[in-house]
Amino acid sequence: MRKHWYDQQTIYQIYPKSFNDSNHDGIGDIPGITAKIPYLKQLGITTIWLNPIYQSPQVDNGYDVSDYYQVDSSLGTMTDVETLIKTVYEHGMYLIFDFVLNHTSDQHPWFKQALADPQSKYRDYYLWQDPAADGGRPNNWGSFFGGSVWAKDPAGGSQYYFHLFDKRMPDLNWKNPAVQQAMRDVAEFWVEKGIDGLRLDAFIHLAKADFRQTYPNRTGDSTPIISDMFYAHLPKVHQYLHDFVAVIKAKHPDTYVVGEASSADPHLMVDYTTPGTDECDQVITFRTFADDNTQDDPSFSDTFQPRPMDVTAYKQNTVGIQAALADTSLPTLYWNNHDMARVATRYGDPDYPQASAKALATALYLQRGIPIIYYGEELGLTNIRYHDIADFEDQTVPTFVASAQAAGKSKVEIMRMLNQTHKMAGRGPMQWDNTVYHGFSDHLPWKHGDTDDMNAQAEIADPDSIYHYYQQLLQLKQCAPFTNGQFIMLGSAEQLFTYLIDDGQKQAAIVCNLSAQAQTYLLPFVGGKVLLVQGGATYRGRQVTLPAWSSLVVKSA
Ligand code: BGC
């Protein structure tokens, strides 16, 4: 049953620095976004999600917040945000903000105060631990950004502070009621300003286990190792989440809360989204994706080796999530976000760029759930290709480079792998037209490199473009049976993705060929009306013929 505005939305994710530059500095900004609201409306978007726009030293492009009540000056002003909120509202759309609640920047006044005065109340806003018996780090837990989660007190004290991400992003102490209150206040400030929802960043890490614990390894050395069992999905997360969300929803019941639960399996997804518990309305998991690692080169690190999709495993993951959430909440449906390479590069077929983009979109977005489209995806935008290792802004990259070099890989090969797989290659500027810098800016963009020749203006002018296909697909999504139908996976050959959407009255079959090889398929019913077709797919009776990367959506009679 659809009860809330957010049960029937199509989200568009904007990485603000890379969307549209209005003030000629090569960095996208808020007025640039406001100017493109009509474009998004036209595409069929109902909700916009902005990656963080708060004041930040930009160590992690905005996920390191130094003031939650200010807009970063490179992106605009508070007045610009107010204008954006108003414009979104006037277009009958919704706006959600990224909300970074697990950590702050080390430049946040709380952390500065915590360092300057260990007796201050702000010391306890963060997580501190005494050294281990040998004077070293308290334990061997690893940071997601490489190395240890522990950094020595920069003010010279003997203690270490905890950082799950970069060491310039200290984790907040959610055991402290003052921290909980402070973060509720921030959320309330923005909701009162008029935003419609929050994307809770990394909320699954709010609770941490006892720091005296070590993750056992065979050698007994203290090399840092990712230790999710100590800092992901601990039971206390539910309470922190509930206490935060319940207060916001008590005053603003229409606020939408989508949580980033990157490592959540279907059961955890159910736990975080069970109606009535005041946790998340939906979650975003990364566990849908499945790549085929059987072709990996074992002679060097696998971290950034490109891999094709493992279609069967992807289908299995999809079924697991759809089945688990069928009576609980709506899954989020996405192919890419700012933490991964672009789908056109990862899974698209360069020999069939248009058809593969359309087939992949069809396989996903008509499923039961909420589409989240990553800016530029609607054009089939591929990764930007950098020339310099430093462009990846990632301290784990040099380790990969060293390992690949030791295995005899050339610089060109190494850059090719990184440009295909790295998240930073998915964060290039949006391509609006065919002028210099693709109409993103008239200044050299903050991220620049080689890009494929495609842009919004050209695609809007071409009725067969990926843009227009997305537009049709999103329109279809607003019609029965897709508005309220159940997801039913259909059996098919390995490279086919086939399912039914059934709302009890009407059924639609979705048949997608995710390969360059021609395929055939037998529909479960004698087809009625074709709702959407591309790539030359045809059917007669029950028999569907699918050339490379084609797809067909057909409704029962
Ligand atoms: C965001 C990342 C960010 C991290 C730390 C994530 O889950 O999506 O882009 O680096 O949180 O805030």
Structural overview:
- This protein is of the alpha/beta class.
- The chain has 3 domains: 5-102 and 177-294 and 306-392 and 427-473, TIM Barrel, CATH 3.20.20; 109-162, Oligo-1,6-glucosidase, domain 2 (Alpha-Beta Complex); 482-555, Golgi alpha-mannosidase II (Immunoglobulin-like, Sandwich), CATH 2.60.40.1180.
- It is 27% helix and 17% strand.
- It has 15 helices and 21 strands.
- The chain has helices at residues 30-35, 37-43, 78-90, 109-116, 177-193, 228-231, 236-251, 266-273, 311-325, 343-346, 353-365, 397-406, 411-421, 456-461, 466-477; strands spanning 11-14, 47-50, 54-55, 67-71, 94-100, 128-129, 150-152, 160-162, 197-201, 256-260, 282-284, 332-333, 370-374, 486-489, 496-502, 507-513, 519-522, 527-534, 538-540, 543-546, 551-556.
- An 8-stranded parallel β-sheet has the order 11-10-9-5-2-1-13-12. A 5-stranded antiparallel β-sheet has the order 14-15-16-21-18, covered by helices on one side.
- A hairpin with a 6-residue loop joins strand 14 (486-489) and strand 15 (496-502).
- Helix 11 (353-365) runs parallel beside helix 15.
- The two termini are 24 Å apart.
- The structure holds beta-D-glucopyranose.
- Residues 60, 63, 100, 165, 201-202, 260, 338-339 line the site of beta-D-glucopyranose.
- The site of beta-D-glucopyranose (BGC) has 9 residues, from loops.
